[in-house]
Amino acid sequence: MTKIIHDQVWPGSTLPFGGPTRALRIAERAASAVLRRAADEVPGVTTVSCRRA
Questions:
Q1: What's the rounded Cα separation, in Å, for the pair 15 and 29?
Q2: In this predicted structure, what is the pLDDT of residue 49?
Q3: How confident is the model at residue 48 (pLDDT cuts 50, 70, 90)?
Q4: Opening angle at CA 30, ends 39 and 50, nearest 5
Q5: Distance between CA 2 and CA 6 in Å, rounded?
Q6: Cα dist from 39 to 2, 46, 50, whole Å
Q7: What is the pLDDT of residues 3-44, one digit of tens each?
Q8: DSSP state of 50
Q9: Do residues 32 and 21 touch, judged by C-beta distance below 8 A?
Q10: Cβ(52)–Cβ(15) under 8 Å?
Q11: pTM to 2 decimals?
C-alpha cells in the first residue's frame, strides 16, 4: 500500500522551468503530460511518447 501511495504522490525527476534566473522546477511527469496534450491539439499530429533527451 505504501508503494502505491508513494508512486502516486512522488513527483519524480524535476526540470528547470522559467529561465535561468528563476528557481522554478516542474515535475517531469507533469511536463510530459502537458506537452502530449498540446501536441494532440495539432491537426494531423499523433503523440506516441514524450521523453527528455
A1: 10
A2: 77
A3: confident
A4: 45
A5: 6
A6: 34, 7, 10
A7: 666 566 666 788 888 888 888 988 888 888 888 889 889 999
A8: -
A9: no
A10: yes
A11: 0.60
